[in-house]
Write a structure and sequence with these properties.
Blueprint: E1 2-5, E2 23-26, H1 33-42, E3 50-55, H2 56-68, E4 76-82
Parallel strand pairs: 1-2, 3-4
């Protein structure tokens, strides 16, 4: 699991019964930029399901990267929960376009 935060002070314990490794990424640019970089090495792994939820523009960039690398769209779930500069962005933005 990859999570983007402003800095180390935003890292929170995320207890889970699953065996999960959390990689914290500290934002150095725009929302999602470090997550795009994190997805690049993972793109193309068969048998993986990708679930991405972040700022709507970043969701679209990450989804496009995965699909362009040959990942089947059925293996990618995306949710844009907010959009920079837009009040009341619908949290059902699936990033499909």
């Amino acid at each position: 699991m990859h999570a983007e935060v402003t800095n180390a002070s935003d890292e929170l314990p995320l207890p889970t019964p699953a065996e999960a490794t959390i990689t914290w990424h500290h934002r150095t640019g725009g929302f999602g930029d470090v997550l795009v970089d994190a997805v690049v090495p993972a793109a193309g792994r068969s048998g993986t399901h990708y679930w991405i939820a972040t700022e709507a523009g970043a969701v679209r960039r990450i989804r496009r990267l995965l699909l362009d690398s040959g990942i089947d769209g059925q293996s990618v779930t995306t949710r844009g929960y907010w959009r920079i500069g837009e009040a009341n962005h619908p949290d059902h933005d699936y990033g499909d376009d």
